[in-house]
Amino acid sequence: MTENEEVQAHPDEEIKLPDLKYKPGNNKLDSYNWLDDLPGCKDDNEIIEIRFKNTRKGFYRNVNNLRLEIGDIVAVEASPGHDIGRVSMVGCLVKQQMKELKIIPSPDDFKKVYRKAKPADIIKWEEARMLEVPTMLRSRQIAEELKLNMKIGDVEYQGDKTKAIFYYIADERVDFRQLIKVLADEFKVRIEMRQIGARQEAGRIGGIGACGREL
């Protein structure tokens, strides 16, 4: 099953989920946990790093003490609703990464990992991902109709299909208040506009060094 194929379920048919089994090394953003061999490191899963579309990542609290491994698909707290992502880092390496990023691990600062994704979560997530390209193309038309000097470079739907992030490029300040109203009416979701640079649009991919730490 590819990312752009739709999952359909009929009342009398068995639901077949896409093949989302994690295969180490198949993704450029995979990270090898070089601290795994230290005593107690694998059990230190209080904070988990979750990866979403492209390079968007975040740290989340594993409040239910779930046994999570890199590649697991999980439902996490969002504002509002919930999002779906993949576990990208666990164990001691998470705290090392936060230290590198100068993030102080205060429990109240992190949203929660709710659960491992259920079949219904994954189906809705796949449906949301299918909307992203047509939504991006239509939103570009709308921005042009409103004569806005900006380019919408990418769209990312939240896993529960209640919100979408519109990544845009602009050389000058843009008043997109009217655009937000039109987009919300057109797509029936909560809208977030997020400015990116040309380099981010061109790649929006990350890298992992030989030691397993993010570049």
Helix % is: 10-25%
CATH class of the domain at 129-202: Alpha Beta
CATH fold call of the domain at 129-202: GMP Synthetase, Chain A, domain 3
What integer value in Å does the Rg equal? 19 Å
Whole-number mean pLDDT: 81
How many strands, which pairing sense, and closed or not: the largest β-sheet?
5 strands, mixed, barrel
CATH H level, superfamily name of the domain at 129-202: K homology (KH) domain
Strand arrangement within the widest β-sheet reads 1-2-5-3-4
Uncertain regions spanning at least 5 consecutive residues: 1-11, 13-18, 204-215
What is the H-and-E element order?
A: EEEEHEHEEHEH
Principal-axis shape: globular
Q: How many E strands?
A: 8
Report the sheet-strand fraction: 15-25%
Count of alpha/pi helices: 4
CATH architecture of the domain at 129-202: 2-Layer Sandwich
Structural class: alpha+beta
Tell me the span between the first and last alpha carbons: 31 Å
Task: Output the keywords.
215 residues; alpha+beta; GMP Synthetase, Chain A, domain 3; five-stranded mixed β-barrel; three-stranded mixed beta sheet; 4 helices; 8 strands; disordered C terminus
